[in-house]
Each structure stands twice: as structure tokens, then as C-alpha cells.
Amino acid sequence: MKRLAFIRNSIFAQIVVWAIGTAAVITFGLWLLTNATIERSNRQALERAVDVDLAGMVDIYASGDRDELAKRIKDRLALQPRNGDPAHYLLADARGKRIAGDLTDWPGLHAGISEAADIRIEGGERAFARATQLGPNLKLLVAHEYRDLSMLLRQVALVFLTGGVLAMLAVALGGWTAAHRLAGRLARINAAFRQPDDAALEELARGSAGHDEIDELAAHSGNALARLKRLAAAHRETTDHVAHEMRTPLMHLDNRLVKALAATLDAETAARVADARTEIRGIIRMLESLLDIAASEARRGDRHGLVPVDLSVLAARLGELYADSAEESGHRLILDIEPDVVIAGEEMSLTRLITNLLDNAFKFVPRGGTIRLTLRRGPVLIVSDDGPGVPEDQRDRIFEKFARGGSSLGTEGAGLGLALCRAIAERHHLEISLAPGERGACFTVAPEFRR
Question: Which stretches are transmembrane (predicted)?
Fold first, then answer.
């Protein structure tokens, strides 16, 4: 099964198989052409032999008479060549009655037009015959048996079979060797794309010292990856610097507001300062979420840095933490977690994914509602509830940035929680979706569907 999958998924293996099949078809076609050529040559030689023999008999009759011709036919039959084509004769009158020769029945050929055709002689052997009219009451038939070519054809078939097998083996060996070399060279390019670290880029540079198309592709790929890596590093450095420069003054402003809140005695002023602090902390959280989304989207499909994470233990631990909050908020939290579900990922990011889904459920489900956290192998993570659900007109854009679901409880938040969940899921080759349902919301995180 693995070998069949390799042939199906590798273009080089498909080329080798195609080349072997082409060699087999060409060899078979040449064998058929050779057989047809041998048989056609044999028939042409037989036709010439019959015509020459018949012409000789006509000359004998022209220079002698019927008795002389009958005598010569008898001599010819008595002196049949051992290795030649056996000859048969029939000298007959106008009604086809035999006068001389070894054939007894006239085969129906029209002697007046010197008709020729394949006939069956006594014993069932196939022969080529030609008839001619010698006189008003005399006609002659000359027939030569087809030479037995079965031994020759078997030898030719054996030669082509041996040559075909050797040709296919040579094509397979040469093609497989070339394909293996090409696959190895392209594997270095793919490895550099999958994990564009310094070691992979150096390996790509070392492998592109030649001057063919693959080397040119490897060199361009290495240069492009190096430029993208530098750009990504510069982008991360810039965003981190901008985030730091924005977060620091906001934190300073928050600290000043704390001091102002402690010093003021006016209730109205204190309330406005508290509202300002809340907005500042919301801006900080929004900034951090945007940075997290950008980081996850930038590393989508990158396997570097992923380690085995026991998702069952992580989900159970988070479920226990949220169980206490559920009692305080008047919700019911049900955990249905299958053990030993492991995934290659980042534990901190996966924690953010689960907590965002649970926070979203607790925020929109009214008091007394039920929230269920389910984990199955795959992995398949499901967070469902019996709350008001997501309105139909918002289902298509619920995972977009700054999209906020409306409910009777309000729409507080920046609308980045589910966008971050999608970015984290895609980083881990997972896909998050909102399952349709009559009541509540059901968010499912499962492996990406491969088209």
C-alpha cells in the first residue's frame, strides 16, 4: 500500500512507470510488425515460386504436348526438395477430371483468368495455388504449401521478449536512478519551504552548485526564502517594537488613572476615571489579540516549534478551572473528554483556543444554561451550549476580525476571540466551524479537510 501511494503521489515514480510501459508497448509493437513482415515476405516468396513453376510448365507444354507435360509433372512430384515448399500439381480436362498430378479435385479456381488463391489440399495443409488455361479442353493448377514458420516465429518472439525485458529493466534502472536524484534535490527545496531555518537554507545552497533547471530553481527558492525570512523577522521586530511603544504609555496612563482615582473624592469623576481605565485595558487586550492573530497567521502550516501536547490533560485541566466559575455564574458545565488525545502543537496557543471558546459560551449563554466541552480522537474538539446561538445573518462572518455576535446580554468585547481561535486552529492544521443547529451554538475544531 505504501509503495502504491508513493507511485501515485510522486511525479518521478509516475514518469518511470510511464517509461516502462512505453518500452513494453514499443517492444510489443515491433514484435507484431516483425511477425507481419515475416509472414508477408513468406507469401510473396511463395507467389513468386508458384508463378515461376507455372511458367515453366507452360513452356514445357508449348514446346511439347500434353503427354510430355504429364511426364514432367510426374518427374517433379518424384523429385520434391527436402527443405523447400512442397509442390502439388493437377492437369485436368475442361470438366476438372484429373489427367496427371497428385491432386484429385479441382479447387474451383477460374483457369481462364489465371486466378490465384489459398486452398486446402489433401491432409488439410494450406497452400497457395494458381490456375491457367492451356487449351480449349486442358487446364493446369500449380500449388505450393506454405512453409512452417512456427519455429522461426517462436524464436523471434523469444528474442523480442528477452530484449523487451532487458530494455524495460534498463529503462526502469536508469529512470529510477534519475528520478531518485531529482526527488532528492526537490526534497531539499521542500524541506526548506517546510522549515526555512538556517540549516535548511545552507543545505539548499550547497545542493545548487550545478547549472541545470533544478539548480536554478533551488537557488531562486533559497534566495526567496532568505528574503522572506528577513522580511518576516523585520516585520516581527517592528510589530513587537510598535506594540511595546503603544503598551508602555497605555500602562503608564493606567497607573496615573489609578492614582487619580485614589486621590479624588468626587463620585462622578471617579466613575469616569474607572470607565477610562476599562477602555484602556480593552485597548491593550485588543492590541495583544491582534498581535497573537498576526503571529498565528504568519506561522500557518509551519511545523517548526510544534511539540506533542496531551490535549486530553489540557482540556481536563481547563474544564476543572471553569467548573468553579460555572457554579458562581449559575451555569452547568459538562466535560466529555476522551483520554490520550495527543496533537503536535503549542500548549499556550491551544490553551488560548479552548479558553476563548469557553469564554464565548459563558458570555452569551444566560444563567441556568448548559455548556458542554467534548474531546474525541482526531482530534475533534467541540464546545456547544443551549444559549440563544448565533443569528443567521452573522454565521458567515462570525470568525472575521471585529465581528461581534449579538445577544440579549450585550455585545461587549472587540470581536477578536473567534478570529484568534481560527488563526490558532489553522496554525495547527485544524479547522474551526460553526455547526448548524436549532438551539444554541456548537463550535467544532477538527483536522483540515484535504481536497
Answer: 12-33, 156-179
